[in-house]
TrEMBL record:
<dbReference type="InterPro" id="IPR002489">
    <property type="entry name" value="Glu_synth_asu_C"/>
</dbReference>
<protein>
    <recommendedName>
        <fullName>Glutamate synthase alpha subunit C-terminal domain-containing protein</fullName>
    </recommendedName>
</protein>
<dbReference type="GO" id="GO:0016491">
    <property type="term" value="F:oxidoreductase activity"/>
</dbReference>
<dbReference type="Pfam" id="PF01493">
    <property type="entry name" value="GXGXG"/>
</dbReference>
<dbReference type="GO" id="GO:0051536">
    <property type="term" value="F:iron-sulfur cluster binding"/>
</dbReference>
<dbReference type="InterPro" id="IPR036485">
    <property type="entry name" value="Glu_synth_asu_C_sf"/>
</dbReference>
<dbReference type="InterPro" id="IPR051394">
    <property type="entry name" value="Glutamate_Synthase"/>
</dbReference>
<feature type="domain" description="Glutamate synthase alpha subunit C-terminal">
    <location>
        <begin position="1"/>
        <end position="155"/>
    </location>
</feature>
<dbReference type="InterPro" id="IPR009051">
    <property type="entry name" value="Helical_ferredxn"/>
</dbReference>
């Protein structure tokens, strides 16, 4: 395909479907990606010696939002909120804007250029590899839930990283990828591995319980040789890594890993709710309707608000406190309420909450 793609290009793309676009695309590219493959490169007329794709945004905001499986290659930068809530897709791009990989729970993301601020906020699963030659990434990353590691040739993920960049180069012709591959032995040290603390803890727990390290099928085996691109653009990649690429990459969703160990049953009492991981730990409690027989005799609310008041603090702890919350946008609260602030105050149940919102009866039985 050639030209300018609109909103939600390749959204929910199914397995077995491959789409290649020469041009650019708007917001929500590959939203909810479900197994398909997408490649986006700039228009051919732009690919001159003076054009640097890594300096230009080629896709819009919130691309790969909620993706669960598949692969996306983007020769150029993505705008803000890239790969938010990604839970299984494999993605390579040449950079992204603010709030990248926010609340990501699975999959892998490789950035061959700079990221914006607040990267990995609330990230609890999956892995991200960020090229950081100028050493500014740490200041832009939200370190509340992740730990950063310097990549080396000896790192168990180095072979996979080399392979996926090689595949990216083959499909996009990226000059950045070509340079990294040509000098991979030294360039690998410019990558930073973003490893979620929850993911690490879950793997550590499984190791202790089962006596093995449970990694996903894409993890290269220690000892694989890592060969980069040579002067003739010929490349050699480890057989095991190449097989992983060919067979598709499977990753562990952190919500599945933690399901049995930390999930709280509906209706269970929680003395001090965990706000940081509430979305993962606590199931959503739906408000119930009052029975028709009961409603026939009064003019009270249709909903049984008493069921909602029970465990209200726990439900408020499920708020993800997004960097750019959609609940405050034109598609959010019709009354213009600041929903994240509201949820936080309800979670804390402070005097400030009662004073600001005048909801003194909210917690009454």
């Amino acid at each position: 395909m050639r030209g300018h793609a609109g909103q939600s290009f390749c959204a929910f793309l199914a397995p077995g479907v491959y789409v290649s676009l020469t041009g650019d695309a708007n917001d929500y590219v590959a939203k909810g990606l479900s197994g398909g493959k997408v490649t986006i490169v700039p228009a051919s007329r732009l690919l001159t010696k003076n054009f640097h794709s890594e300096d230009h945004i080629i896709v819009g905001n919130a691309c790969l939002y909620g993706a669960i499986d598949g692969r996306v290659f983007i020769r150029g930068q993505a705008a803000e909120r890239f790969c938010v809530r990604n839970s299984g897709a494999i993605v390579v791009a040449e950079g992204c804007g603010d709030h990248g990989c926010e609340y990501m729970t699975g999959g892998r993301v490789v950035l061959l250029g700079r990221s914006g601020r607040n990267f990995a906020a609330g990230m609890s699963g999956g892995l991200a590899f960020v090229y950081d030659a100028d050493r500014v990434f740490k200041a832009r990353c939200n370190l509340q839930t992740v730990t950063l590691f310097d990549m080396t040739l000896e790192n168990e993920y180095a072979s996979w990283l080399c392979t996926i960049i090689r595949t990216f180069f083959d499909e996009t012709g990226s000059l950045v990828a070509r340079h990294i591959l040509k000098y991979f032995d030294t360039e690998v040290s410019n990558f930073v591995l973003v490893f979620p603390n929850d993911y690490y803890s879950a793997l550590k727990t499984m190791t202790a319980e089962n006596g093995i390290v449970l990694m996903d099928a894409a993890t290269p085996v220690n000892g694989d040789a890592v060969s980069a691109i040579d002067d003739n653009d010929g490349a050699v990649v480890p057989a095991a890594a190449a097989k992983s690429i060919a067979n598709g990459l499977k990753t562990i969703d952190i919500e599945d890993v933690l399901k049995e160990s930390v999930a709280v049953e509906k209706g269970a009492e929680v003395e001090i709710p965990d706000k940081l991981r509430g979305f993962v730990k606590y199931p959503r409690t739906k408000i119930k309707y009052r029975s028709i027989e009961e409603r026939l005799h009064d003019w009270s609310e249709v909903y049984a608000h008493g069921t909602l008041r029970h465990g209200l603090k726990v439900q408020a702890a499920r708020c993800m406190d997004c960097g750019v919350p959609f609940c405050q946008s034109s598609f959010g609260c019709p009354l213009g309420n600041l929903i994240p602030n509201w949820n936080d105050l309800v979670h804390k149940q402070t005097e400030e909450c009662h004073e600001q919102f005048n909801i003194s009866t909210l917690y009454s039985a």
